[in-house]
Amino acid sequence: RNLSTTMARSQKAKPASSGGRTPRGTRSSGTGAASAAATSKAGKRPRQPKQRTHATPTRKNGASEVPGTSNTASLPPVQQRVRCFGSYPDHAEYAVYHDTEWGIPVHDDLKHFEILTLEGAQAGLSFETILKKREGYRKRFKGLDPAKCAKLTDSELKAALDDPGIVRHRQKVPSVRQNARVFLAIQKEHGSFDQYVWAFVNHAPVVTVWKKGVMPPPTDAARALSLDLKKRGMTFVGPTIVHAYMQAAGLVSDHSESCWRAAA
To answer: pTM for the full model?
Structure first.
């Protein structure tokens, strides 16, 4: 046999080497890999769907901050406050008046005249009715400036009787001019109406606390002021009206014991 024949036979009998790779187009039994994959798949827990939480957002101090709710820890909203008047549905304007004006000491003469005029107009009516007409009074009576009201003409007063924005009372309307003239005379005598009126309470508010629903009677100071104003020529200034004026202007603090302003 020659050498070339021997080598040819040797190569034909030797199996082809794959170099550790599975020839293309064939599958490996893959016992190890398949087994590991199966074990991994079997041992893996099924995925749980994510659950949405609805945690209540809070401020740093822990108070609720959910939209549409109020933080009542620091200050209750207007409708939740206990007050002398105005704490009932659909009377927000009256509640705001109580919380921001009524009983707060007044030291401005224009404000004194406005309150005195409105309280006089209230006689026989509820003050809430008058409060709703306050802007009407300001428009009709020149901003309720006593210097201007003192110069109202008869024709202006007659026209006022046809104005639905005020209380159209035949005695109350002309009293605005008459009281303005007396008011100016008091200013001239005492330097200001404020100095004159606060002297009746020794220049400090008279503080009292009443049970809710109890109507505080006119004080001795109210009676004395009423008497003096009448002597000077003012009208619609009886003791009850003057006491109401003093309450509104802060000369007297008559908040009920359960009112939030009583403890403020």
So the answer is: 0.69
